[in-house]
Design goal:
Strand content of chain A: 15-25%
CATH topology of the largest domain in chain A: Aldehyde Dehydrogenase, Chain A, domain 1
Radius of gyration of chain A: 24 Å
CATH class of the largest domain in chain A: Alpha Beta
Number of strands of chain A: 16
Shape of chain A: globular
Oligomer: homodimer
Chain lengths: ~425, ~425
């Protein structure tokens, strides 16, 4: 890797930031129809230029294979005609969603005659730092563009040529629509020092959203001076209460654990009230083992499921992202809640119970973005919530919590109209 | 100052954090009436214990005088019986405000039968880092307590004994009400290393709010890994448009500049359309000079106001917090907007004009928390906005922008109720 001096980094990022700031003011002036036309145009051109995208992706793919990238990651990296069509369809769908910008969220008059409106506005410039999935490039652009934000993307090195090609095609589409192409910019320097400096580009960037694994998110949180929305990691729990309907329990646990592994809303840990352990665990164990799930349990669990390994304390804090599940018996609802609040990541946790009072206590006391009664944690998702889009799942409490759609990419301002008022 | 080892810092902060986490769960379980009673009790006891507070404050005051603290700061530090009564009254007022916690912000059903409620919840643990005004101690407690947040306070060294006494009295009031006194904790170690470590106490603290000068805020933004809400600095502008009603202009400018200096919503910079410079500047200059305001202007300004100094580029970016005002003439509304967006701090900016279209353009394009037409920037304030309370003025776009009242100290969670739903 060529090394790059601090002065060069500064110059490069100042340029990126300045261009984004100029684009931001252009985007703020676009109406919804203009934005939707540009999204449709970008979708159309991504499909038209499939050949170019596939060629660029091939370069990434060959290099990744040479570098012995794991099979699962290689699959995420790979573009196909169908995946390009899906990317385009994503942009078309964003075009159909209501535009949150300009919404008057509140409006009130003060006794002194001042009229105050709280109006939804774009954030301004959004930075997205992500890993090796090229579809994020089009997706993040679509969501930011629809909400009037200029976006600066820093994708993973492994998808560099793919991201570059996608960005180029979208910029060409914007130019054809007469819109500042710097509404989307890709950071093309892959030096770690540049990325770290980007996290401190406070003067130009209004919010930074990392999308990826725990390591990436930690690095952004630790280094950034730009406000960050943390997304992602999910050590999600399901607690099967003594008052659970056991016919619902097995399908929900199997769904939450196995419908898709490797996602943040998959179940990683199961708690079972000791009063029903004997009744539910054998059936549950059988169903999990049929799905090739490795079970790590406490003593009671291992009595009921002989195939289970012994769980260590560390297991309860793990986000496996794999066919592994920790299982623990608890003596009470209170113990379940305390365990979850100790080990969870504030993402999604569920109780299975037919007792309303116990359900309400769980909903109130478990400190997570999404809390469930009698449903799979896999529903924590912008599409499943009906937002029509998703930029990520926030696990922090500031600004946005849980699935983030278009609205969560906006801020607001107060517009105050008077006729000469001064403060006494 | 005694020095303190990394291990001691870690142990001290872990203890503070753990206590706050326990208090947080207690606070979440209190109903509005319980919270209001405790606020009333704390108010009552602050007044009862005035003598104790005044004695503690005297220790701070004497030390501050010995250290040659500036007159203005000494005044902010000073407690009097009247100021203690005002602190208590602040708590009583917070008790009368509606409790935002538990509000169902949205509620919707999905086609698969899932019922989703978006419910307002406390943030959890709030950290407040502030400077030498002891009244902030009671104030920050009141706002956090009413919103169900445990608060950890780090006040300025200079007010240490005052803050300690206020905190003790409030903790005694909480104990009398049977509520975990760790709902309020004061960091009693004044070592800088402890404060820096506190900013990284991510495991225990959900949000950090710095209240103070630009240096304090910068330090928190640069060091914190806990999400921060930036408050404060205001380089506020007033632009007098060519279509301004000049009879409104002079009173508004005088009010925004001189009604109170040293506050973040005071006007620091004035822009005047060149077409009306000759008509407005002489009268305005006279009024400002009468109020002892030093004027720093461009050439046109100095022709009209001979007493004005020459403004440098640097003047336009200054938050004087003093009887100084930079004044510049501009050739167009567009130039005014561009100048403001370049030099402002995203706080409050006003246009004076009778032209609706020009007013709308200004409201839309100036990128600040609060934008005004024909009113003083001094109205950017939680009380003036009718929020009944204020924890600060946010100048960032994430989470909260502009005056922050009780609602801005809350987060939300999604409560999802099903009857066995799994994801297909």
């Amino acid at each position: 890797m060529e090394s790059i001096s601090a002065a060069e980094i500064d110059e490069y990022l100042t340029q990126l930031g300045t261009k984004a700031q100029i684009a931001k003011t252009v985007l703020r002036g676009l109406d919804t129809a203009q934005k939707n036309r540009a999204l449709a145009r970008a979708a159309e051109m991504l499909v038209q230029e499939s050949e170019r995208l596939l060629l660029a992706n091939e370069k990434d793919y060959v290099r990744a294979k040479e570098n012995d990238m794991a099979e699962g990651l290689l699959d995420r990296l790979k573009l196909t005609t169908a995946r390009i069509e899906a990317m385009a369809e994503g942009l078309r769908q964003i075009a159909t969603l209501p535009d949150p910008v300009g919404e008057v969220m509140e409006s009130f008059d003060r006794p002194n005659g001042l009229h105050i409106e709280k109006v939804r506005v774009p954030m301004g410039v959004t930075g997205i730092i992500y890993e090796a999935r090229p579809n994020v490039t089009a997706d993040a652009f679509g969501l930011c563009f629809k909400t009037g934000n200029a976006v600066i993307l820093k994708g993973g090195r492994d998808a560099f040529y793919s991201n570059q090609a996608i960005t180029e095609v979208i910029r060409e589409a914007l130019e054809e629509e007469g819109i500042d192409k710097n509404a989307i910019q890709l950071m093309e320097k892959n030096d770690r020092a540049v990325t770290t400096a980007f996290m401190k580009l406070k003067e130009y960037v209004d919010v930074l959203i990392p999308r990826g694994g725990a390591g990436l998110i930690r690095s952004v949180v630790e280094n950034s001076t730009v406000p960050v929305i943390e997304t992602g990691t999910g050590n999600c729990h399901i607690y099967i209460d003594e008052a659970a309907d056991l016919t619902k329990a097995v399908p929900i646990v199997i769904n939450a654990k196995t419908q898709r592994i490797g996602v943040c809303n998959a179940c990683e840990s199961l708690l079972v009230h000791e009063k029903i352990a004997e009744r539910i665990l054998p059936a549950l164990g059988k169903a999990l083992l049929e799905k090739q799930v490795e079970i790590r349990g406490d003593e009671t669990v291992r009595e009921q499921i002989p195939e289970a390994q012994a769980a260590t304390e560390e297991d309860y804090g793990r986000e496996y992202l794999d066919l592994v599940l920790s299982v623990k018996t608890v003596g009470s609802l209170e113990e379940a809640i305390a365990h979850i609040n100790k080990y969870n990541t504030g993402h999604s946790d569920a109780i299975l119970t037919e007792d309303q009072a116990r359900a309400q206590k769980f909903l109130r006391e478990v400190d997570s973005a999404c809390v469930y009664v009698n449903a799979s944690t896999r529903f924590t998702d912008g599409f499943e919530f009906g937002f029509g889009a998703e930029i990520g799942i926030s696990t922090q409490k500031l600004h946005a919590r849980g699935p983030m759609g278009l609205r969560e990419l906006t801020s607001y301002k107060y517009q105050v109209t008077g006729n000469g008022q001064v403060r006494p």
